[in-house]
Amino acid sequence: MATSRVRHDRPLFRRAGPLLVIAVSVASLTTASAPVHILPPVPATHSAGPDVLKHNTSRSEGTAGSRPVGSSEYAVPGDALFVEASGKAEGPGTFASPFNSISGAIAAAHSGQTIVVRGGTYHEEVKVPADKQLTLQPYPGEAVWLDGSSVVSGFRPAGGAYAADGWTPEFDASPTYSWGAPDGKEDGWAFVSREYPMAAHPDQVWINDIAQRQVGSTAQLTPGAFFVDYQTDRLYLGTNPAGKTVRASAIAKALSIQSEYSVVRGIGVRRFAPSVPHIGAVTAEGKGITLAHLVITDNATTGLAIAATDVTMQNITVERNGMLGAAASYADRLNVSGLDASGNNTEQFNSAPVAGGFKIGRTRAVSISDSTFRNNLGTGLWFDESVFDLAVISNDIIGNRMHGVTVELSAKAVLVDNFIADSGGHGVKINNTSGVDIWNNTLSGNGRPLNIVQDDRRAADRSVPGHDPRQVFPDPTMTWINGPVRIRNNIVSGTAARGNCLLCVEDYSHQFSAETMQVSALGNVYHRPQADSPSWLAVWSNGPGDPAVFKSLEEFTTATGEDARGIDLVGENVFKPGTFDVADSVGARATIVAEPLPFRIAALAGEDADVRHIGAFSH
Question: Three-state SS for 250?
Fold first, then answer.
């Protein structure tokens, strides 16, 4: 008997073909080869997964994301340089005589200075050069926005549409990370789908702050759509703009931070039009950069890209960006806390090879904690291609159209104390990853709550994309073979038949059994609304041939010896109404069922060692 096979997700970076590693060099981030032409990422009305927003409580919603732009109160050093939109280009940058642009202040600053920006909107591309360690922050209590859009006026009726002449911004529509390269042809390697052919065109238009949809010709114009004619320098709207404010993106890149140990905090970045090869509207390219309380929203492709080591991200909001909220590569020792990545991939790029909330590749030692990944049109949080030593701690990962969390072609991963719910794909997908600990998570309303899959890719094969070129070959820490995978104290709730199993272990290469991959389960609660929805409690790889399937925990334990203390709940409510908190009747059994937290796991979760608890903790 064959079980359903879900195609494995394709990695973000590829050494051959149309993809390009994010941070091959700083130059790849800062040098564009072609005039910037951009077509729009226009946020369209969308829904995420099929069960999106079933649950309405979230631990991290109160703490994840930036504080509102304009509410930061950072101290102002005595030697700070000041910027105000009404200032003078020549400075000298004092409080009484400020610069009129951030770029002007940076040019005048010496390394170690702080640039304080007065409230207002700044329409410019900003670069912090490699030779100046600077701090960029707003004046206390004032709202500062870097805004890539301009007001467009002078529209006239034009054949059933409305046209404005003299619109000259043009952007590059390269669909991959390589300038001018065509999109992939193989299924799973194409960035742009047939259904949304304009996705890689970074032009963007808003009418009264409502994003419009880009089309490829005047013949396709309808209300809510726009077309940019580069030949005639003309912007067309399908909606009558009379009495309304029209804004359109006019600058590709927002902010490039190239110097080590610089700090950028407390500002907003919106409506820029980076092409896919720009990597992001904001890029962190120097070691030890700190980013805090930034709002990065409504940009054409990726909002924020990390391409350097020892970067700290604290309370960042990346939302409604056209392809990805954030991306990272070669970002060793990346520390992320309080990130809110929500509603990204508004342009409807294909979910693979890359789209969604946050994708991380070729990085060693990364921590993602106390963050929210919600309603992204793709995977919420994706680690792919030689990520080593990763920790996913105390996050809410809810309502994403594809998987909640994917860990692929990687090694040494810990997922502890996360709420993962209402994914259109799987809750947690472990794909060709060794050394995985999955402790005290709550999974509900996903396709397959836990999907552990092996395919035929091996790290010992140099021809397979995804190796970290900084490591020796073969990398002894990176086999791309699952196991061991330890599954402890989780609530694994399947509320839909579409996933067909709760705990699912398969090897598409038919070489490894679940036992040889050292997949083990202990102290978990398995919950289904009824015994046949989903059909099986467990799918368990036998290696060659079809996997074994088990309809109940009793069958599973008898055949495999796994999870002898687990609980099989059918019909009974496992959660308190409207929450992800475990029901009292289930939580009372924790001391019998749950494994005591080992010190290492307890320290990550902020709990005492040896505590017995079922599912994620309420904080």
Answer: coil
All residues at 6 or more sequence positions from 296 whose CB lies less than 8 Å from its CB, including other chains: 268, 269, 270, 281, 282, 303, 304, 316, 317, 318, 319, 321, 325
User: What pLDDT band is residue 497 in, cutting at 50, 70 and 90?
Assistant: low
Is 603 a domain residue? no
Q: Assess whether pLDDT exceeds 50 at residue 2.
A: no
Whether the CB-CB separation of 595 and 490 falls below 8 Å is answered with no
85: helix, strand or coil: strand
Q: How far apart are alpha carbons 291 and 313 in whole angstroms?
A: 5
Residue 607 is inside which H or E element, if any? none
**Strand, helix or coil for residue 364:** strand
Residue 560 has pLDDT above 50, yes or no: yes
Q: What is the rounded CA–CA span in Å between residue 360 and residue 76?
A: 35
Long-range contacts of 555-559 (CB under 8 A, 24+ apart): 556/503
Rounded Cα gap, residues 490 and 473, in angstroms: 36
- DSSP per-residue codes, 111-161: TT-EEEE-SEEE-S-EEE-TT---EEEEPTT--EEEE-EEEE---EEETTE
Query: Is 126 found in the same domain as 265?
Result: no
From the CB of residue 560, how many other CB atoms can be counted at a distance below 10 Å?
A: 18
pTM for the whole thing?
A: 0.91
Report the C-alpha gap between 321 and 341 in whole angstroms.
9
Let me know whether 279 and 398 are in one domain: yes
Find, among 235, 241, 231, 358, the residue nearest to 296 by Cα: 358
The DSSP output letter for 533 is: B
Query: Do both 270 and 405 map to the same domain?
Result: yes
Residue 444 located in a structural domain: no
Q: Are residues 44 and 167 in the same domain?
A: yes
What residue numbers bound the domain in which 85 lies? Answer: 81-142
- Residue 274, domain member (yes or no): yes
Q: Rounded to 5 degrees, what angle do the CA atoms 8, 274, 387 make? A: 35
d(CA 152, CA 139): 29
Ordered DSSP codes for 441-504: -EEES-SSSEEEEE-S--TT-TTSS---TTS-SS-TT-------EEEES-EEE---GGG-EEEE
Q: Is the model's pLDDT at 20 over the cut of 60?
A: no
Task: Determine the 3-state secondary structure of 80 from DSSP.
Answer: coil
**Together in a domain, 62 and 171:** yes
Strand partners, 328: 306, 360
